[in-house]
Write a structure and sequence with these properties.
heterodimer, A: mainly beta, 6-stranded mixed sheet, 5-stranded antiparallel sheet, about 0% helix, globular, B: mainly beta, 7-stranded mixed sheet, 4-stranded antiparallel sheet, about 55% strand
């Protein structure tokens, strides 16, 4: 059973602070890693993906991947109240049956609250 | 219209009803997915279609029946559902590549259908 674990929170940070969201996964064969943001009552929207060890930065967001430790994190710098949402970590195991497609396993999500 | 669309956005049905959920993607993708999202649970993959062929069925009860007539459309036919089937049903799509190249997949989600079974 492939598992993805996240601290459900809620994680509360003040406006302007750095929010740190963590995720561990059990399947060493996992090949790519995604962070989605989901506002209440809405569908998940992609924030970032990462597939190589190290850091990947996009604006205020930085994804960090450590495959040896089976750990992926998301840092949000200069947190804003509009960042308040549930953050979903998803791990992709690529399946090849003639053609390739992804099979995502999601964590339960971390609720982030950014207070003014 | 762009992205992934789903209809209806909200659905209330009795346990003896038959209804269908529709998903349409305008991204040129060839893989489509159905997910179920219940309160306090992670997103659960239900079905995967790749190039219009069903390639994954994650032990989903037969009261859920998917259909993929072409690469842009995906349906989920519902019949004799149970109250515990009440959830947000999400459709997603992604590219498909031939061969055994290592790739990273990105799935894009539709807005979902909020289903309530009475």
């Amino acid at each position: 059973q492939k598992e993805v674990e996240q601290n459900s929170g809620p994680l509360s940070v003040p406006e302007g602070a750095i929010a740190s969201l963590n995720c561990t996964y059990s399947d060493r064969g996992s090949q790519s890693f995604f962070w989605y943001r989901q506002y209440s009552g809405k569908s998940p929207e992609l924030i970032m993906f990462i597939y190589s060890n190290g850091d990947k930065e996009d604006g205020r967001f930085t994804a960090q991947l450590n495959k040896a430790s089976q750990y992926v994190s998301l840092l949000i710098r200069d947190s804003q109240p509009s960042d308040s949402a549930t953050y979903l970590c998803a791990v992709n195991f690529l399946l090849v049956r003639g053609t390739s497609y992804g099979k995502l396993t999601f964590g339960q999500g971390t609720i982030l609250t950014v207070h003014p | 219209e762009t992205g992934v669309t789903q209809t209806p956005r909200h659905l209330v049905m009795g346990m003896t009803n038959k209804k269908s959920l529709k998903c349409e993607q305008h991204l040129g993708h060839n893989a489509m997915y159905w997910y179920k999202q219940s309160a306090k649970k992670p997103l659960e993959l239900m079905f995967v279609y790749s190039l219009e062929e069903r390639v994954e069925n994650n032990s989903v009860p037969s009261r859920f029946s998917p259909e993929c007539p072409n690469s842009s459309h995906l349906f989920l036919h519902l019949h004799t559902l149970q109250p515990e089937d009440s959830a947000l049903y999400l459709c997603a799509s992604s590219p498909v590549f031939g061969g055994r190249r290592t790739i990273q997949e990105t799935q894009y989600f539709g807005p979902g259908t909020r289903l309530l079974v009475l």
